[in-house]
Design a protein that fits this description.
Length: 159
Amino acid sequence: MAKFKLDDVDHQILDILIQNTRVPFTDIAKKLLISAGTVHVRVKKMEEAGIITGSSLTLDYTKLGYSFIAYVGVFLHNTSQTQFVLERIQEIPYVTVAHITTGKFNIFCKIRARDTLHAKEVIFQLDDIDGVMRTETMISLEESINDKKRLMHTIFNEL
């Protein structure tokens, strides 16, 4: 597949959409002084090229009662158990992210919980999975940086 070329208008459209995926194309068009049809066509082309793979909804987990975040490193008895363990992890809804990693851990997870007691229950669920030797937990005190735009702008500047 040929590499899709993004121009400045595409960058500006993505810049607006990454901030708020629910912005109507007509609003984007007005801001960029182009037609809504142009926005629609360009977004469609970026979707077809696989650059845009959907849109997401950002929730305020604190307002929903899930402000506790922890990162859990999972040590396995054998790396051959990775897929099996990941399938069991996927059954725990409070594990929101899991990565197969190199280095210290075999799998690295992010969990969201109501409080420390709830987090302990989730961590014990991880520990109880067959194939897990042990876990190591780090508690997040604060999410200080969560900025997709900086990376996006760096990528655009490198293109």
